[in-house]
């Protein structure tokens, strides 16, 4: 059995070394994605979103509102428009990403304590820009309203300290857990790096397996198919151990991505994740006769895999059949467990379900790969 394991390992190493296309995917793609993918998000947050303002009130209070908004780091007021038609034209031409409409009698309504609705419109095609514009003017409007109320209380003779307490009976302090900068890169890049490891490993193994399935298999593969399968996994596990170290040891530091967990604690979990992914790749490679077909099919599944993994779209919002389907992909428990261990500092006791999910996938894919290998070896013999 040990001889079968070692023979399979040497044969797979030789096959990987000979196939330049697979090496490009297993190593070149990792370097390319790792260095380039986080770059657009390195600024972390969307700042100075350009907006145009339609000020129907043209009062001192409305101008103060605009000065406060422009002074914030969230938006940049690019100018005034005569009416909403002109503002919409600038939005359609992408000269600005947001429009703010201040109504008539804005100052009068605020001073009288009446509702004064500010219209905030943004290009929802840019989700981050939309949220920044809405958040900026909500914060500025609440701050300005608080200042007006405090001034009114002071005018009535209320002591300053009492006026401030009366305005903020229940102050709220917001802290971003596990993402101190509140940035998009800290949210999306760690999970996507796990998806990249998953997809490139699947594509590389699948394409190589499809290319080599016409070659004769040694008799040891028929006698001990389970050990043959495990031996085939070793080269990929070694290559992706280095790839994982590059991602989580170099890329995280290069882009200042936050991490709470212990790197050594991550090793057993990543080994289980990579083994499950490798075994799935062996299974997939045995189902197709052409490496081109394997690449096309697996590339097509990349985006669905991202949504099924649960970090970009909550699993609670998915239909039940899709939730069960997602559990058949190592990327789902892989992303879930990695984010808890590495980003949130969780313990293994707190990731029991992702661990169990990966362990069951390892067993399932090993049994299927063993059966496929035995059938192929017996058919060749």
Q: What secondary-structure arrangement, pairings included, does this model have?
A:
Blueprint: H1 2-18, H2 20-36, E1 49-55, H3 60-71, E2 75-80, H4 84-92, E3 98-102, H5 106-111, E4 119-122, H6 127-155, H7 160-167, H8 184-212, H9 219-223, H10 225-254, H11 263-285, H12 291-300, H13 302-308, H14 320-326, H15 331-343, H16 352-380
Parallel strand pairs: 1-2, 1-3
Antiparallel strand pairs: 3-4
Helix pairs in contact: 1-10, 2-8, 2-10, 3-6, 6-7, 8-10, 8-11, 8-12, 8-15, 10-11, 10-16, 11-15, 11-16, 15-16
Protein described:
Strands 2-1-3-4 form a four-stranded mixed β-sheet, sandwiched between helices. It is mostly helical and 381 residues long. It is 66% helix and 6% strand. 35% of the residues are buried. The longest helix has 30 residues. Helix 2 runs antiparallel to helix 8, helix 3 packs across helix 6 and helix 10 packs across helix 11. The mean pLDDT is 81. The protein has 16 helices and four strands.
């Amino acid at each position: 059995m040990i001889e079968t394991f070692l023979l399979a390992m040497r044969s797979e190493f030789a096959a990987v070394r000979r196939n330049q296309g697979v090496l490009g995917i297993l190593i070149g793609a990792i370097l390319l994605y790792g260095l380039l993918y986080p770059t657009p998000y390195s600024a972390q947050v969307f700042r100075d979103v350009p907006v145009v303002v339609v000020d129907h009130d043209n009062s001192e209070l409305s101008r103060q509102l605009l000065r406060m908004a422009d002074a914030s780091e969230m938006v940049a007021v690019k100018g005034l428009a005569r009416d909403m038609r002109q503002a919409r034209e600038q939005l359609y031409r992408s000269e600005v990403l947001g429009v703010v409409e201040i109504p008539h009698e804005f100052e009068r309504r605020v001073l009288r304590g009446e509702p004064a609705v500010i219209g905030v419109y943004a290009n929802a095609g840019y989700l981050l820009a939309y949220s920044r514009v809405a958040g900026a003017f909500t914060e500025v409007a609440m701050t300005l309203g608080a200042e007006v109320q405090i001034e009114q209380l002071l005018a009535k003779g209320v002591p300053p300290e009492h006026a401030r307490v009366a305005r903020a009976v229940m102050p709220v302090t917001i802290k971003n857990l596990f993402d101190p900068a509140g940035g998009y890169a800290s949210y999306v890049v760690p999970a996507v790096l796990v998806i990249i490891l998953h997809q490139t490993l699947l594509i590389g193994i699948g394409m190589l397996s499809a290319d080599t399935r016409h070659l004769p298999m040694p008799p040891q593969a028929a006698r001990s198919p389970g050990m043959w399968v495990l031996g085939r996994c070793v080269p990929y596990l070694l290559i992706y151990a280095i790839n994982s170290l590059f991602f989580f040891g170099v890329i995280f530091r290069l882009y200042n991505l936050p991490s709470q967990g212990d790197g050594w604690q991550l090793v057993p979990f990543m080994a289980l994740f990579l083994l499950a992914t490798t075994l799935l790749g062996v299974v997939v490679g045995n189902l197709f006769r052409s490496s081109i077909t394997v690449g096309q099919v697996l590339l097509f599944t990349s985006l669905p895999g991202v949504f099924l993994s649960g970090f970009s779209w909550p699993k609670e919002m998915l239909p039940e059949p899709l939730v069960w389907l997602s559990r058949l992909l190592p990327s789902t428990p892989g992303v879930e467990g990695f984010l808890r261990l590495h980003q949130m500092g969780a313990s293994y006791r707190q990731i029991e379900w992702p661990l169990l999910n990966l362990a069951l996938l390892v067993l399932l894919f090993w049994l299927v790969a063993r059966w496929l290998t035995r059938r192929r070896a017996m058919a060749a013999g």
